[in-house]
Amino acid sequence: MSDQRSRVSMLSQAPFYVGYLPVPSPLAAFLFLIVPTVLAVLAFTAIAAARSQRDPGAAVWNDAHARQFRGLFVAHPYPMLLIQKDGEETPEIHLLVEMGKHAGRIGLAELNGKSVISSGWTLERDGRRMIELEPDAKALVADASPSAVPPLPPVVTTGRVTLHGEIVDSKCYLGAMKPGEGKTHKACATLCIRGGIPPVLVTRDDAGGRVYYLLVDPSGGPLDPAAWPFVGDPVELSGELELMGGMRLLKVSPRDISRR
Amino acid sequence: MSTGYVAVQWSRHKRVYDASIAIGIALYLGAFVGVSKVLWQGAHGISDEVILIRALGSCAIVLLHVILCIGPLARLEPRFLPILYNRRHLGVITFLVALAHAMLAIGYYHGFGVLSPVRSLLTSNPNIDSFRAFPFELLGLGALAIMFLMAATSHDFWLRNLSASTWKRLHMLVYVAYGLLVGHVALGALQTDRGWIGPALMFVGLCTVSGLHIAAGLQEYRKDRGNPTTTPDAEEVTWVDVGAPNEIPIDRARTVCAPGGERIAVFSTGGTISAVTNICAHQGGPIGEGKVIDGCITCPWHGWQYRPQDGCSPPPFKEKIATYQVRIVSGRVQVSAKALPPGTPTTPVRIPGDMP
Amino acid sequence: MADSIALAILWTLATYGAAGFCFALAFVFRGIHCIDPAAEHAGLSFRIILLPGAAALWPILLRRWILAGAKP
Questions:
Q1: Closest by alpha carbon to B300, among B312, B311, B308, B288?
Q2: Rounded mean pLDDT, A112-138
C-alpha cells in the first residue's frame, strides 16, 4: 500500500510537458540526452548505408575535352566507327552514341560505309571505348582525305551458345552512369535502348572478368523491342554467336531470353 | 485550438525542434555523401547524382522510422512527449526529402530520353506480374502520394474540416506508405547492392518499429484488463470501480476501461473527482495521461484544455468532450459507464475529509 | 504498363490536378469562409499552405462549399 501511495504521489509531481509552456527542467535534461542520441543514430545509419554501396567498376567518361577520330563509319546494326591502328591486323571498333539517351540519328544514310571524321567524348571500360558525338554538325563529317580506310573485318560465325548475364545499355555501362547496371538502373537502361543506345550482354568468364556481347536481332538488325522487359535483370539467353574483329555479336530472339 | 487560423503557431519549442531536424538531415546527407566520396574515387567513383538520390531516399526512410517510433515511445515513456508535440513538422519535412529523392531519380533515370520522364516511369518496366523484376518505382510513387496527402492535410484546418475520424484514418495510411516503402527498397536498392548491410539495416528498422508498437499495445492491453470491477445499480446504470480517492494522483488521472471498451479518465483536482472521456477532441490524444493546469485538464499531446466539470474548452475555444457521472460509495470512487453528450455539466464529487 | 494506359493515367491526373489547382485558388480565398468561419480573417500564408491539400481533395471541398452555400 505504501508503494502504491509513493507511486501515486510521484506521478502527481512528475514533470508535465505542454508545448506552449517552458519545458520542465527534468524533461529538458532528458531531451538533451535523447536529441544528440537520435542525431548520432542518424549519422551512424548514414555511414552504414553509404558503406553498403558497391564499387560501380572502373569506367571513365572523359566529358571535359572532345577529341577527333578518323575511321570507317558503319551505320548498322548500330552506328560504329572502325579505326585502323598502325601495325594492327583488325580495326578497333568504337560504338557511336549521341548526347542524352539517344543514338542513330546522325548521318545514317549518307555516311554509311564512308570514311569520316567524328568528334566527341570518349567513354571507356575494360579496354572498350565508345564515342559520344558532339551535338553539332561537325560531330560526323565525310573525310575528304582519308589516310587508311580499314576494310570491314570478316564476320565469323561460331555457332549457338547459351549465356548468363545482364543486358545493359552500353553507354551507361561504359561510364555515363555509375553504376549503370542492376535493378535501380533497369528503367534507365530500357529508355536508353529504346533511344537507340546499343544493348550489350555482360557476362562473367571463369576468371571473373567481364565479357561483352553486342545484342542484335536474328536478322542482324537492332534488338527486338520485345526483349526490352528483360533489360537490367539477371537473364539466361541463347543465340548465334558471331565474331567481327574484336567484337562479339549475339543474334538473339526475345523468346530465347528468360529471367533467372 | 481553434479561434483564428495561422499558417504555423510558432513557439520556441517548434523552432528548436525544426532546427534539430535540419541538423539531423544535414548530418545524414553530409555523412552519406562524404563516405561515398571517400570510399569510391577516380575511375571507381559513383555518379554524384546517384549518391544524392541514394542519400535522399535513405534519409527519408530513416526519418519515417523515427516518425513511426515516436508514437509508441511516447505511450511507453511519457518523457518522449515533447518529441511527439511537433511530429507533423517532421512528417512534412520527411515528405519534402522523399520528394527531392523522387524528382532527382525521375529526372536522372527517366529524363534525357525519347519519352517524357513520367511516361518512361510508367512504361519502362512492364513486369508487374513478376516479383523480382517488379517495377519498384511504382511502390515508391504510391508511398510518395500518401506522404503528400498527409503533408498537405497536416494543418489543424483539415483536422476540423475533414472530421477527426476521417483525418485520423487518412493519417493511419502512414503504415501503408511504410509497407510500400519497404517493398520499394527491397525490390529496388537491395536488389542492386546485394550486400548484408542494407538488408540488416532494413531488418533492424522493421523490428524496432514493430517491436515498439507491440510493446505499447501490450501495455494498453494490460492496463485495460487489469481494471474494473463493475456494479449495476437499481436503475441499470453500470458503475465502474476506480479505486480509493487517494489512489488517484492529485491533478492527474486514473484511466479505467468501461465494459464497452471505451476508456474513461478520472481526475482528482482541488479535492474533487470528475471524469471525462480519454479521447482528446483534437487528435484523439490520451487525456488520462494529461494534467490539470490552471483548473483545466490539459492533453499531453498538444496541450488542448477542457474544464473538468463540463468537458468544455475555456472560452474563446469551443471544443467539447464527453463527461461521466462520478460517485463515492464505501470509500471507493465509481464512474458511470455511460458517456454523457460532449459538454454536459456534471457535479464533481468532493472527496470526504478533504477541505476545500 | 502499356503505353496507352500510362497516357490515360497521365492525362487523368493532369486534368484532375489542373482542375484542383484552379478550384484551390478560388477555395482558399472565398469558399473557405463558407465552410469554416474561423478562417475568415486568416492571413495569406495560412491560405497558401492549404493550396496543395485543396487541390488534391477538391471534390470533397466542392461538395462542402455547395452544401454550405445552400444553407442560409
A1: B288
A2: 92
Q: What is the DSSP letter of B6?
A: -
Residue-range definition of the domain harbouring residue A107: 59-142
Verify whether the Cβ–Cβ distance B43 to A46 is below 8 Å: no
Q: Is C36 on the interface with B (CB under 8 A)?
A: yes
C57 neighbourhood in chain B, CB within 8 Å = 149, 152-153, 162
* Residue A65 placed within a domain: yes
Separation in Å, CA of B113 to nearest CA in chain C: 15
Alpha-carbon gap, residue B321 to B325, rounded angstroms: 14
The whole-angstrom separation of Cα B137 and Cα B128 is: 11
**What average pLDDT does the structure give for chain B?**
92
pLDDT, residue A9, reads: 67
pLDDT confidence of residue A137: 78
Q: How far is B343 from chain C (nearest CA, A)?
A: 20
Kindly identify which residue of chain B lies nearest to residue A29, measuring between CA atoms: B79
Separation between Cα atoms, residue A255 and residue A13, nearest integer Å: 75
Q: How far apart are CA B62 and CA B97, in angstroms?
A: 11
Nearest-5° Cα angle at B65, B147 to B61: 60
**Distance from B182 to chain A by nearest Cα, in Å?**
15
Averaged pLDDT, B344-352: 91
Mean pLDDT of A154-167: 95
Chain B residue numbers touching A192 (CB-CB < 8 A): 113
Q: What is the pLDDT of residue B227?
A: 57
A112-121, A190-199, B229-238: least confident range? B229-238
Q: How many domains does chain B have?
A: 2
- Mean pLDDT is lowest, of A145-159, A214-228, B240-254, for A145-159
Q: Considering only alpha carbons, which residue of chain B is nearest residue C47?
A: B7
Per DSSP bridges, beta strands A199-204 and A115-125 are unpaired
pLDDT in tens, A162-185: 999 999 999 999 999 999 999 999
Closest-CA residue of B relative to C50 is: B152
- State the smallest CA–CA distance between residue A59 and chain B in angstroms: 5
B to C CB pairs, distance under 8 Å: 67
- For residue B311, the one-letter residue type is G
Same domain, B218 and B339: no
Q: Is the pLDDT of residue B131 over 50?
A: yes
Is some CB atom of chain B closer than 8 A to the CB atom of C7? yes
For residue B279, what is its C-alpha cell? 479521447
Residues on chain C touching B160 (C-beta within 8 angstroms): 36, 38
CA–CA gap between residue A80 and residue A22 (Å, rounded): 72
Do C52 and B160 make contact, defined as CB atoms within 8 angstroms?
no
- Taking the C-alpha atoms of A39, A42, A48 and A53 in order, what is their torsion angle to the nearest 10 degrees? -140
d(CA A113, CA A122): 22
User: Do A124 and A161 share a structural domain?
Assistant: no
Q: What is the mean pLDDT of residues B19-37?
A: 98
pLDDT 10s digits, B163-211? 888 998 999 999 999 999 999 999 999 988 878 999 999 999 999 999 9
The CATH number of residue A107's host domain is 2.40.50
Residue that terminates a domain, selected from A142, A170, A185 = A142
